[in-house]
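Record type: ASSEMBLY
Status: queued
Input:
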Amino acid sequence: MAAPSISVSKQRPRTQWIGKLIRQLLFYVLLILLWQGLTALHIWKDYLFPGPLDVWTSLKGFIQDGSLLIAITVSLRRLLMGYIISLVLGLILGLLIGSNRYVEETLGSLVLGLQALPSVCWIPIALLWFGLHEQAMIFVVVMGALFSITLGVDAGIKNTPPVYIKAARNMGSRGLALSLQVILPAALPSILTGLKQGWTFAWRSLMAAELIYITVSLGGLLEGGRDLGDISQVFAIMIVLVIIGVIIDATIFAPLERTVRKRWGLSH
Amino acid sequence: MSQSTVNSIRDIEAYSEDKASPLAGVNSLQIEGVSKTFADGGRIVEALRPVDLSIAAGEFVCLLGPSGCGKSTLLNIVAGLDKPSSGKITANGKAVHGPSTDRILLFQEAALFPWLDVQRNVEFGLQQAGVPAKRRKEIAHHFIETVNLKGFERSYPHQLSGGMKQRAAIARALAIDPAILLMDEPFGALDAFTRDHLQDEVESIWAATHKTILFVTHNVREAVALGDRVIVFAPRPGRVIRDFRIDLPRSRSLEDHKLVDKAAEILDALKSEMQLQEQEQKNGSTIH
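Status: finished
Output:
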């Protein structure tokens, strides 16, 4: 027979990507210029609204004395540890809720309730249970991320296209093999949504916790800026927080989501 | 399924073939009084009225009918993925109580696993059966070649066209070596050219492997081109109305006038049955 027709999907042209980068860069340059312009007009007092140069000086100071690097390391370590714990627990809980009706009716309703609870609300409990320790921070991160991840796994399992399960059962797959080799990968797009939401909640709750419990951390530096009345420091750390958020999304979640959505045939 | 049961089935087949003329006496599939009714919001729906069918090993049987006639329901019941409301199915001498690798169902949407490449999709059933990796690879390789997908082993389903997906799904089914292939409108979503092409391929695979094939379609010509038998279903309630035997020599051309005549005959039978039914319903509503 003739050679089979090929429909290998093409890569997006590189120029499109560069165009987007240029537009974004231009936007931020304009934003900084606007910011500088506003500062030059002295509408607000300098100790309330710093100019980009003041903020840069402040940021440079933290970079040079190494405190920024230490703060980032401390905060990201907490985030990572808490996130890994919630990932493992969330997968287990989600699988249980998604695959058993009784667990869903009971534990599922509780998870749904706790998901609606703002994760900042866990800080008092964390401080009473663990005191001013690392564990308190990690506990808050776990409580922030866990329920989103659990619900993502649960939703993914419930939305598994029945045809995959039919085909797998027909080919002799059952029990744990069916769960791990078919249902879980089929649920991946939905799980990823949960993972992404879980990370944003984890990040937010960590910052909230670090504002209360002053250590050398990003939240600590932010709160330190308030204590010293140093508005440039506050601005500088906030910009760092935004950049970290963007980097984590752009390097981890966005590529993962793109790959999965494409391979699972959810986008082209 | 354990190796011993596989062997015992083969023994039974071999034994019966000795007694009777090859193929003729061996019933690969016995469908006795199988029906399906379900409740849909308080209304009772007769998806399939009791069906009796006897299908010989190696027979190519097309189940033909418009949508809602119960042909796919029957196929799912034969696959063991759906339970009948009544009746019983015997496949290769064994009562059907659930899905089994001796009856593999192929779906219109191919149902390849998107997270596995073609090679690993084809290996899936073998992996479930605990076939060692090396052997798995060889078998998958062989069937990927059979369906003309060589060179696409490392492609993912989203990179394949509709026809190629169906080919991969056929390879995945063949790798498990089922006695019976159940095909649920496998080419329903394909364009006419790809469809013709795949029909030829299925026919040659069937001729080479002697598998029993139940092929669901709503395309009359496709049914006549492929089937040894065409079993015609009518809808609401789903039921079997005729069982045509197609004696045309293979391989059949869709343009052959004998084939076209046969298709017309089958279509007439289906149309008159449906008109009769409409008439009855009209009469029924005027009387009451």
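Annotation: Confidence is low (pLDDT under 50) at residues 1-25 of chain B.
Annotation: The helical segments of chain B are 3-19, 71-79, 118-128, 133-146, 162-175, 192-209, 220-226, 257-287.
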